């Protein structure tokens, strides 16, 4: 099962913004649900 994370993104520039800012500016931002892959394990 893939984990998901919500992120805010500016519709004008495509840059990530905070979710709080995306909620304040709904006309120019979107809140996306992104898949979060597994973390890579470090070699010892």
Structure description:
This is Multidrug transporter. It comes from Maribacter sedimenticola. The chain has one domain. The protein has one helix spanning 19-24, and strands spanning 3-10, 16-17, 29-36. It has a 3-stranded antiparallel beta sheet. The radius of gyration is 14 Å and the shape is elongated. The mean pLDDT is 89. With 44 residues, it is mainly beta.
Would you summarize the structure shown here?
This protein has 44 residues and is mainly beta. Helix content is 14%, strand content 41%. It has one helix at residues 19-24, and strands spanning 3-10, 16-17, 29-36.
Strand and helix map with partners:
Layout: E1 3-10, E2 16-17, H1 19-24, E3 29-36
Antiparallel strand pairs: 1-2, 1-3
- Going by helix content, strand content and strand pairing, the class is mainly beta
Note the overall shape: elongated
Largest sheet: 3 strands, antiparallel
Percentage of residues assigned to helices: 10-25%
What is the mean pLDDT?
89
Low-confidence stretches: none
SSE succession? EEHE
